[in-house]
Amino acid sequence: MRNKVPEATLVFWAIKIMATTVGETGADYLAVHVGLGTALTGALMLTLLIAALVMQLRMRKYIPWIYWLTVVLVSVVGTQITDALTDKLGVSLYASTIAFSLTLAVVFALWYRSERTLSIHTIYTTRRELFYWAAVLVTFALGTAAGDLATEALGLGFLFGVVVFGALIASVSVIYYVGGNPVLTFWLAYILTRPLGASFGDLLSQSRAYGGIGLGTINTSVLFLSAIVVLVIFATAIEQRSVRVVPAREP
Fold first, then answer.
1. What is the C-alpha separation between 143 and 101, in angstroms, rounded?
2. Residue 81 near residue 93 (C-beta atoms within 8 A)
3. CA-CA distances (angstroms) from residue 186 to 8, 121, 172, 175, 229?
4. What's the structural domain count of the chain?
5. Does residue 74 belong to any structural domain of this protein?
6. pLDDT, tens digit, 9 for 90 and up, residues 183-204
């Protein structure tokens, strides 16, 4: 099996941030505006996620459209998990942020204990891929809780949230480029892109009365889904070109 996770290029991070935005606005649109409610939206998205994840696990190499479809669905489900805890069960954002942080630490600990690496460059066994997707799901749930905690509970607002989380990601990038641990900086950036994307999505979609620009969840979701499709097509072309150019290794 070839490595199942793409290189963390600029295209990777662009799609990741937009996928988190779609997770925020898409979940809100289905649950509130379509009227499906949190429970039905969560069940529907979980079913689609399981189907996409089965496809992803069956592949023997990185297939861009399957991989990024799974990421988008994980984003929606991760958002729904946090929203269900907050809105339906009354769990505070402080508690859910701490709980998801501890859960992610446990996933990483079990992953490292089993595989002795957390690198995305070594996802070429099914067990490692399962650990990877478990970590990704928890990062989305954690990012949703942390983002809502910062922008809503602490009252920072959507614009300030975008600035703060963007600055944190920039700081992590600087640490990486001056010699920081690549695995640690990758996962820190991966976690932070979730609240950045959520804050950006809320900034665009929410009405001006709530501090947003007022594009609405439909327009924001369609805009970013269209951009994701374009970038995934581009990533697919790059992947196919690299397969043609790089000769197969001798056994």
1. 9
2. no
3. 8, 11, 8, 11, 24
4. 1
5. yes
6. 999 999 999 998 888 788 878 8
Q: What is the pTM of this model?
A: 0.88
Place of tokens 């939206």: 41
Contacts of 138 (CB under 8 A, 6+ apart): 78, 100, 103, 104, 107
Does 173 fall in a domain? yes
- 82-140: per-residue pLDDT in tens? 888 888 888 999 999 999 999 999 999 999 999 999 999 999 999 999 999 999 999 98
Show the domain range for 137: 10-245
Burial-class residue 84 by CB neighbours within 10 Å (0-12, 13-18, 19+): middle
Q: Flag whether 61 is in a domain.
A: yes
Distances 85 to 77, 82, 96, 99, 187 between C-alpha atoms, Å: 12, 5, 8, 11, 24
| Per-residue tokens: 78 | 């991760």
φ, ψ (nearest 5 deg) of residue 2: -85, 165
**In-domain check, residue 1:** no
Query: DSSP of 58-119, one letter per residue?
Result: H-SS--HHHHHHHHHHHHHHHHHHHHIIIIIS---HHHHHHHHHHHHHHHHHHHHHHHS---
